[in-house]
What we know:
The protein is α/β, with parallel strands linked by helices. The protein contains 15 helices and 15 strands.
Amino acid sequence: MVALNPISxxxxxxxKIGSALLVDNKTGLLRSNWLNSLCQDIAKLQLQDYEIIIxxxxxxxxxxxxxxxxxxxxxxxxxxxxxxxxxIALSQNWTNALSKYDLIGGQILITPNxxxxxxxxxxxxxxxxxxxxxxxxxxxxxNDSVATAEIRYGDNDRLSARVASMIEAxxxxxxxxxxxxxxxxxxxxxxxxxxxxxxxxxxSEIGSEIEAMAGASSSHLARGGMITKIEAAKIATxxxxxxxxxxGTKNHSLKALIDGAKHTLFSANQxxxxxxxxxILGTLEIAGKIYIDDGAAKALKNGNSLxxxxxxxxEGEFSRGDIVAIFYSNEKEIARGxxxxxxxxxxxxxxxxxxxIFELFETISRTELVHADNLVLITGNIVIK
Length: 385
């Protein structure tokens, strides 16, 4: 029987690679053959119209080797120095490996505020989407060289889940040193207590029983472990993104997954756009109000974006990415969404068509005041006059 391809129904994939896979534990050097095989798998997926985003660890360990710092416990300042030096090496290695298969990489360094605050998140989201449109492969890492507490407690498992949520990925694939979740830590099988540990193929809901199955990290190279992967699964699935944990220790680990390698699937109960719109509608704090005319109301009802030409009044002080309420005929709130402009630019743009807005703002690339993907209609409140 031929194994089913677990990613056949997805299009946009975030792939997270940990330090223990990318960097040799003994030498501190990059595992070049492994990276080349992964990039070959990525190239084949891109030819099949998959969109691939990489979240890559490894900068700090590469920096340790370059700077000759072998101690496991380093001060925060030295860890930041390692990250700074290693990030250049990591970026160069990704560029070289991708280029062998005619792929272009684009580096993005992210700090927690970018994924947690919507105004920053929109900028990062736009950059990633533009790279994907240009057939480039975004390579993302946490900006450890300027992080403080995050460098000690942060991890790229949760970062990858935040990125997956931000860009509405269909699936987050975490390549690990284990092939999924077990009922007890598989590294501890020498202990009779764990000899009956079972592999969990699918998790539909993350409850206390699933959380209890997670163990600590087994490698000093990694800041995570199964605990952080479970936390990542919560973030991803609540955002509408499925998550897969599978082994990445051998070459061509993505191909192995496609061919049916053992893995654990954490399934989301809604699609990314539904989860995103649910978040928007559930937000209590409204930063501003937008009033629109008949034409704009009809456009929204038909599933279109809100363009400035249909805006009659703008109230409040808000920034790009803040939640705004949309009113029709000065009566009921008919929609809610993420502002694509701040209140100053929105006031300048209101009532103008796209051509006039492009002339008004020389650096602008999109003219929507609220894009359809970031807008939720309030059912029952739209009655066009």
